[in-house]
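Researcher: Sequence recovery benchmark, item below. Answer with residues only.
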């Protein structure tokens, strides 16, 4: 029986040892499992980094292989620009011609002779039947031109030193309708300075 108890003791010890080994083995397996998981995570991170680096390399290759954009213009661009410059030059020339025509017109107007100052002595018509007899007045005969107005005529004479007013011109020409001046009609411009 001693042998049997020894065997039982050895068997129990073997079972405990086997269980202890199983526990140790399990711990080692768990540890290895954790390390494998850590390695897999690290590998996944390295994979992401590698993908990012590959992406950067791809972008750099695209930049290197893309031709440099230069600031030079193509032939079509130059033709279009030349056409625009010609159009601008044509418009500038048209404007210049128009300005010259306008200046020519202004020159003709400025060169036109001023109203003639022909001293004349005519009797001033009476304003009403009870007035005093007509007295001879000194002044100028003026022939109405196209576009003349009473104000323009009076101003032209004032510019030449004849200090005449519109009212004086109207008074000297009572039968003339100054609202409708007829070209070619003679009117009398009194000279208030001459006495």
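Model:
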């Amino acid at each position: 029986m001693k042998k049997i108890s020894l065997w039982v003791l050895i068997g129990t010890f073997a079972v405990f040892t086997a269980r202890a080994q199983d526990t140790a083995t399990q711990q080692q397996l768990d540890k290895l499992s954790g390390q494998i998981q850590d390695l897999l995570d690290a590998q996944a991170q390295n994979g992401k980094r590698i993908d990012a680096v590959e992406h950067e390399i791809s972008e750099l290759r695209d930049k290197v292989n893309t031709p440099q954009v230069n600031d030079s213009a193509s032939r079509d661009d130059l033709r279009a620009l030349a056409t625009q410059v010609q159009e601008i030059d044509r418009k500038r020339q048209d404007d210049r011609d128009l300005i010259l025509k306008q200046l020519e017109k202004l020159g003709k107007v400025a060169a036109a002779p001023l109203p003639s100052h022909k001293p004349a002595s005519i009797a001033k018509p009476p304003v009403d039947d009870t007035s005093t007899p007509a007295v001879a007045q000194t002044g100028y005969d003026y022939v109405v031109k196209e576009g003349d107005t009473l104000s323009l005529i009076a101003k032209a004479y004032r510019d030449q030193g004849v200090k005449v007013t519109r009212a004086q011109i109207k008074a000297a020409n009572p039968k003339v309708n100054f609202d409708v001046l007829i070209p070619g009609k003679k009117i009398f411009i009194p000279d208030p300075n001459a006495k």
